[in-house]
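INFO  loader      accepted 1 record
INFO  loader      residues=152
INFO  predictor   begin
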Amino acid sequence: MLEKACARNLFAKAAKASVRVPDDLLERTEGALRRRFLELLGLANRAGQAVAGFQKVKDRLAANEAALLVHAVDAAEDGRRKIVGLARARQPDLPVVALFTATELGRALGRDNAVHLVVLPGGLAERLEAEAHRLAGLVGESGIVSKEPSLS
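INFO  predictor   done
INFO  writer      dumping tokens
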């Protein structure tokens, strides 16, 4: 939609004035959405609402205590399959986010890497899911944020 709005000069029409749209508007917008998600994730971690680590994530999923599952796009296939399989068995509608690398996730949590993590139920989980949908919509990653994630 942003590309279409830029191509059709819709920003100027809406503002009823001359508007100069930066050439890198999409990249800036993606960067802002990525930062917002990671900042919210850091906030969830500081509030004790995010749990990272394979075993800790497995334990929270087994106890049905997750509102959002996040795993790194560079996570090992077998680890992703195990975690998502457990999530589907226990909480079939659990949203899964796979839009960030382990380094990006780790940086948000104040560690080197974070491959698998869950966000506990609450307002932060809802905000994180909404931000992930916005980002996935912008970058065109259909199926990355969903109730039925692809493991490919």
